[in-house]
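Example record used in the benchmark description.
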Amino acid sequence: MDFEFIIDNKLHKISLEKKEDCFVFSDGEKTQEVNIKFISPHVISVLIEGRSYQVYWARDKEKRYLSLEGEEIVVQEPSASPEGIEKREEKSREDELKVKAPMPGKVIKINVSENEKVRKNQTLAIVEAMKMENELKSTIDGYVKKIFISQGELVDSEKPLIELELKE
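Model output (C-alpha cells):
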C-alpha cells in the first residue's frame, strides 16, 4: 500500500507491504523491514533494525499527533494542507454525503442501518487498516440513505461505503 502524508509542510511518500510477520517499508531511498505491534489503541511498538521504539499517537480530525522518544510529530494527510483545505471547501455537497474509508482495509463493524437518523460526528462504521481501527463518522445531521458494505468486506479508499441524506 502506498501512503502520502505531510510533516513540517513537506510531502512524504512511503510504501508498506506485508511480509510474513513484518512489514517492508520503503520511502524511495531506503527499504527496510519493520515489525509493528499494537500495545493498546494509542501505543505502538515498532522494531527497526533491532532497535525498539514506543510510539504514542492520537488523532484530531485530519491530524495525527505522534510522540516518539519525547519528540512530538504532527502528521497530516495531503488533503489537510492549505491547498487541500481550499479544495475541500469547493467539494460538492454530494461528495460530503458519501462516506469513504481513509485507506483500503476491512470492515469490522457497521454501527448503523439504512434509514437510521444520525448526527454529525457519529461513528457509522469501523474499518481496520494495518491493524489500526479507523472510525468512519457522519459529516452531517441526517439519515443513512444507503449502505454499500457488509461486515468483513475488504474495501477500497475510493469506493463510497455509506451514503447519507440531509435531515429535512
